[in-house]
Amino acid sequence: MSNELDKQSPNRQQSGYYEDEIDLRELFMVLWKGKLWIIGITFIAAVISVAVALWLPNIYRAEVLLAADEEGGGLASLAGQYGGLASLAGISLPSGGSSEKAVGIATLQSRQFIADFVESHDILPELMAAESFDWTTKEVEYVKEIYDVDQQVWTRNVEAPLTPKPSAQEAYEKFREILAVSEDNETGFVTISIEHLSPIVAQQWVTWIVADLNEKMMLDATAEAQQSIDYLTDQLKNTQVVALEEVFYSLIEEQTKTIMLANSRPEYLFKTIDPAVVPEERSSPSRALICILGTLLGGMLSVLGVLIWHYVFKPEGAVQQS
Predict the structure, then answer these.
(1) 3-state class of 265 per DSSP?
(2) Domain-located, residue 250
(3) What is the pTM of this model?
(4) What is the pLDDT of residues 223-246, one digit of tens each?
(5) 211 part of a folded domain
(6) Which domain holds residue 112?
(7) From its phi and psi, is residue 91 left (phi > 0), alpha (psi between -120 and 50) or beta?
(8) Beta-carbon contacts of residue 129 (< 8 Å; ≥ 6 apart)
(9) 44 to each of 217, 298, 307, how far by Cα in Å?
């Protein structure tokens, strides 16, 4: 009895092995029989991908290369130097925080700065309603269902809490999609880029945003320096220690220098190394890649569909030829 089982066991294992094995010949025959479906679906996918690639508008990217000027920091450095002496007299000196470059990059991407930028330059229509760019007239064309350029009226149909005119929050979300900021870890250079349907608009905006950022950082620095001077002047009145008086005079001098330098430099924090130019070549879309990927996707889906139809929806009772 055991001998018979032993003889049958290899046959069972061999039979199970062949049942689980993929028959490449049958697979090829299935695909060959469905070749018309595969070719047809692949062709349709290729046509659709070409149509989509041609329908998508050109996007242009303008970028500027910047170097951060972080010299100075008088109050932070002197406060660290003389902080111990001041603390003996019960006086707390303001301490420095993050680097100016880090603060500048964070400010550039903040909601308040972007909202102020959009409002001050009145670029909301170009941001939210641009449809295409005409190289002949050098003008942006708008989506009529969103913005009527002749009447200068927002015409989009939206539900509450949204309004026909896009809010500052909507403008921020849209602007963050086209704004890119990157920093080279080796050189420390910062690259700011903006993408838009209009290459002229992209170049203008990236130039404006650098100028506005430098101006804001300059105003913030002078305001902070003036606050430090006022603070140090008050502390100077309340001390009788000669050594501390010298410290306070040094700190006040440094903050006065900060104000003078800030007002004398148009590019307060970020110095332009390579200014933005009007791009002549589009950055996207990659039409060739869209066509290739669309055709490949259609081919793979058609092959998968033929196999599923054969192995899953195969008519019952069909006899598989060996």
Answers:
(1) coil
(2) yes
(3) 0.71
(4) 888 887 888 788 777 776 667 777
(5) yes
(6) 60-122+166-274
(7) beta
(8) 142, 143, 146, 147, 154, 156
(9) 55, 8, 19
